[in-house]
Amino acid sequence: MYGKKVKLRFLFLVLVLTSLILTTYLILQSLKDNVVYFQSPSEIKSLTEINKKKIRIGGMVKVQSVFINSTEVNFIITDFKNEINVLYSGAVPNLFTEGKGVVAEGFLKDKNYFLATKILAKHDENYMPPEVKEAIGDK
Amino acid sequence: MLATQIGYYSLILGLLLSIVLCSVSMKDLNSRGKQINQNVISLSFLQLVFVIVSFLCLILSFINSDFSNETVYNNSHTTKPLFYKISGTWGNHEGSLLLWLLVLTLFIFLFLIKSREQPKKYRIITLLFQQLIIIGFFLFVLMTSNPFNYLFPLPTEGLGLNPILQDPALAIHPPILYLGYVGTSIIFSSSLSAVTQNYVTKEWGQHIKKWVLVSWIFLTIGIMLGSIWAYYELGWGGFWFWDPVENVSLMPWLTLTALLHCILVLERRAALTSWVVILSITTFTLSMCGTFLVRSGILNSVHTFANDPARGIFILIFLFILVILSLGIFFLFHKESDKKTNNFFWLSRETSILINNWFMMYFLSVVLIGTVYPIFLDVISNEKISVGPPFYQKLIVPFLIPFLLFMSLGPRLKWIKSKIENKKSLIIYFLISVMLTFFIIKNLTTDLLFYTVLVSAAFFLFFTTLKELFIRKFNNVSQTMAHFGFSLLILSILFNSILSSEIITNIRVGEKYSYSKGEIFFKKIKERKESNFNSIIAYFEIKDENGKIIELKPEIRVYNQPIIITSEADIKTTLLEDKFLVMNLVKGNEYFNIRYQIKPFMIWIWISVILLSIGGLISLFEKRYEK
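Predict the joint structure of the above. Result:
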């Protein structure tokens, strides 16, 4: 009924479309599992239940809150309204200092304790992640 | 002072010349004669000279630390070493845009003198499209990011360049990357021009392939340099972080690679014409998008020099104009070429190249969505998210298996219709790869099945291309070399990630830290003063399981202007592995936070990327396809 060319074109189109749909499905599915949400200490205080998923918390490292021993670095992240204790054993970035902005990635133990798996690097003393800026507000 | 003025007026003259150039070449369009009017080429050269003069003036201002120039004031300092004063020229927003402009004008000039055998109209229209881009960037530089702004009163000292940018690899990374990034503009202009002239033919394919190769080689090397820098400077011991800024350089690379492959089909078989044009447009659009995302301050990174919304909006509008224009031209002018040549059997070189393109587009969509989705979500719902490496690994790594297999089989197929030859030897190679893989990684990983299949596929490509290189007497050496480089790259990355190990601990001077495979001894610290920084050098002795001791001396630098602390990792590189030690100091504590990593086959990652680009280089110079 149709020529060979039309059939081939049709087959090609079907292949492209199915792969497109499959790709989109795969990507969206994996996006759902691998997205890390960013929250401020205040947002965590207002949580009703503790989620098991990995999150990021941003704010300032509270002055005189850093405590280091041979295995751990513990400190408090504050957004000047609420604060949260961070327990961490791992490498800290260059500019990790009291009174400066920080982003920690990890899991919530409860509303007051955060088990960090990673502290993110900053490269500039004036630089503040926009999330942190927003979390801290006008301060 | 003088340099600033010359630089500024030189830029304005360059812009005016664009307009002259456009009108002169328009006139030439309808004139007789087979060659372009010599004036056009001279004018294009003159424009290049003006931009070079302007660029040199900026370099000169940087060398002389002329702080009456705002760009110099913001990004330089008298105590900075000369080399970094010069590299500081393009280490900032304004200077790097001037570099964009320089590459744009350089490429169109080279295009004009290198394309004398091409039809005249095609060349002129390419020039016009390129001038459109050039005018856009001239306006962008002059209106929103003038590198020659005056400062008054005259400051006595500059603000300095971000110390982590003061690094040899990063000094040459921008120019090289730009040659690739901006080089895609020529592909864009000429493919649009070819569409209007109905010239998307075999001849055009052969001619434009060189330009695709040039961009591809520079882009490859540029990405590698950035990656090497991230490896030793950022102190995380990785070489690719799936950071949005890295992704925006990877995306044009993927489309460029796809383009490189389907241009082969075009130059041999005059097929896939629309696809080639679409890829050309996409590649340049992605380069522009990259510039937009990085420069507008939407993505935060070292590359974001200043957050000025006006700049973002300018690029965005310009980008929209270009995209709409190019799509309009494509749909209005493009005619499918003669259908006679379009037939091919399912098992053929054409199919294998289409499969390559499918994978490239798949990888592209993964990277694109991973990069853009967080921005998109932030805009529509104000939710802050980040998409981490697991997303990319999960979506890309499994697909490498069929990709590698097709890569080993595809090039063996003939054009139009083919069958697989030497089935026996292929099966033998495959079995060898599987067995070898199994023996190597039997004890190394928990996910044995997956890694066996993946590494086998990589080994399969490795062996088949290696055999090609030696047995087929270097026939089609460029392709084999590039594919061999790619197999080596995947193998090094895989073994690197499977075998890497790290120790992170906090340690005081004089302490020893023992772990299952050795011992880390923190001997002492020393202080050192340089002109632009003070540093603390730590001496570590590391004993491995065989009792062999190596000394590593990581450094913490406190730069004076701007005041920034950086960690300089100390890396001992051998052919088999890198030993990587970096330390950090938390202010007001006697503990140093150290990270010691053993990274196997690190150097092979760089070597294989170089092999990959050598493959491209050979293809650029080889004379194949005799008529």
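The mean pLDDT of chain A is 80.
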